[in-house]
Amino acid sequence: MDSNTARLTDRSMRPNSITFIGGGNMAASLIGGLIADGFDPTRIFVSDPDKEQLSQLAARYRIHAAADNQSAVEAAEVVVLAVKPQVLEAVARDLAEALQASRPLVISIAAGVREAALLDWIGEGIALVRSMPNTPAMIQAGATGLHASAGVNDAQRNQAESILRAVGLTRWVEDEAQIDAVTALSGSGPAYFFLVMEAMEAAAVELGLDSESARLLTLQTALGAARMAIESRDAPATLRQKVTSPGGTTEKALGILEEGGLRDLFKDALLGAKTRSEELSKILAKT
Q1: Which residues take part in binding NADP(+) (predicted)?
Q2: 224 is in an annotated binding site
Q3: 13 labelled as ligand-binding?
Q4: Smallest Cα–Cα separation from 62: which of 34, 33, 40?
Q5: How confident is the model at residue 8 (pLDDT cuts 50, 70, 90)?
Q6: Is 85 annotated in some ligand binding site?
Q7: Residue 69 annotated as binding site
């Protein structure tokens, strides 16, 4: 289902209160996005062991700094688990009793931790949504994959979507295993584009451009191409064809890229990332 056209995600779908367990960059991005989109900061609670970071978040966004994780989730309608995957088990087990008592919707943004492991740690019967955001969420330009466990109802799906859409686009997947493909595509994807920009910039310098011009022209070209792809009804293949004149410079360059196996390289790269995501999920489930 297309989460951006077929589901209700207006402000009426938002929860009354949200608690973030963990106050790192992604949590701060979600909080900033929610507030920028009109969510009442007095209904947002955050808990984090780094008291200085917690204090800075509270001062910046006028949200509530909770004394500890348990008190933070007591009255929350939604709890966002925003801690590192390596410490999530300990945090989740410590929260299990409080979560079983309050029964909120739980959203995990921890990469690689499967729903079965999470439900084992926090206990069965909790409505759980697993999400895979990416780093552009920090500038409200993210792309997030979502999967709902069996205990999540339609209203809770809409609540989860309304939160993650505050920092960009969202897409639901019906099979949790597809989150590994999302990780390979959009989770790791920004780095692929950074590498392409890095390579183009370096090549432009070798062709004689000064470094500043090479960087700015590369970045603006990437931005312009992305905006055209987003705003046009044409597929990327059609857009590519429209700017490729027969016998011209673009055709020559694209021919070299095709001969070099660019498509197969990207296919192998995404497959490798997906396989690694699957491996890491198994490792995290055993720790």
Answers
A1: 21-26, 82-85
A2: no
A3: no
A4: 40
A5: very low
A6: yes
A7: yes
Is 123 annotated as belonging to a binding site? no
**In contact, 144 and 133? CB cutoff 8 Å:** yes
To the question of whether residue 24 is assigned a binding role by annotation, the answer is yes
Alpha-carbon gap, residue 220 to 35, rounded angstroms = 29
Contact criterion met (CB below 8 Å) for 19 and 66: yes
Q: Is 63 annotated as a binding residue?
A: no
Helix (H) or strand (E) holding 279: helix 262-286
Q: Annotation-wise, does 127 bind a ligand?
A: no
One CATH from 3.10.290.10, 3.30.1360.10, 1.10.3730.10, 2.60.120.620 for 189-277: 1.10.3730.10
Considering the four listed CATH numbers 3.90.420.10, 3.40.50.1370, 3.40.50.720, 1.25.40.10, the one that applies to the domain covering 11-179 is: 3.40.50.720
pLDDT digits (tens, 9 = 90+) for 56-112: 999 999 999 998 999 999 889 999 999 999 999 999 999 999 999 999 999 999 989
Q: Residue 173, SS3?
A: coil
Domain spans, the chain: 11-179, 189-277
Residue with tokens 């709902």: 148
Q: In whole angstroms, give the CA distance from residue 129 to residue 156.
A: 9
Provide the pLDDT confidence category of residue 1 given band limits of 50, 70 and 90: very low
Q: Is 167 annotated as a binding residue?
A: no
Amino acid 239: pLDDT: 97
Q: Which of 9-18, 130-139, 256-265, 272-281 has the weakest average pLDDT?
A: 9-18
- 137-156: pLDDT as tens digits: 999 999 999 999 999 999 99
Residue 25, annotated as binding a ligand: yes
Asked whether residue 196 is marked as a ligand-binding residue, the answer is no
Q: What strands, in cross-sheet order, belong to the sheet with 128-132?
A: 64-65, 44-47, 18-21, 78-81, 105-108, 128-132, 142-148, 168-172
